[in-house]
Amino acid sequence: MDTSEKRIIGSLILLLGVTLLSIALYANQLPLILELMKNIFEPSVAGVP
Q1: How far is the C-alpha of 24 from the C-alpha of 8, rounded, in Å?
Q2: Which of 28, 29, 45, 49 could pair covalently with 24 via S-S, beta carbons 3.0-4.6 A apart?
Q3: DSSP string, 12-46
Q4: pLDDT tens, residue by residue, 6-46
Q5: How far apart are CA 49 and CA 16, in angstroms?
Q6: Global pTM?
Q7: What letter does residue 2 receive in the DSSP assignment?
Q8: End-to-end distance of the chain based on CA atoms, in angstroms?
Q9: How far is 7 from 25, CA to CA, in rounded Å?
Q10: Cα separations (Å) of 25 from 5, 13, 16, 41, 46?
Q11: Over the Cα atoms of the chain, what is R_g?
Q12: Backbone phi, then psi, for 3, in 5-degree steps?
């Protein structure tokens, strides 16, 4: 896969994330999104002192 293709895919994923976050803000679902993000990133910081 070419570098420019990776950049396009990365940009689309970032745009999707920003879009979903803005929809969550509009629908007053921010606490649910924050709790979901805490649960997702909890294993990645479990071994950090």
Answers
A1: 24
A2: 29
A3: HHHHHHHHHHHHHHHTT-HHHHHHHHHHHHTGGGT
A4: 999 999 999 998 998 888 888 988 888 888 888 888 877 66
A5: 33
A6: 0.60
A7: -
A8: 37
A9: 27
A10: 30, 18, 14, 20, 28
A11: 15
A12: -60, -40
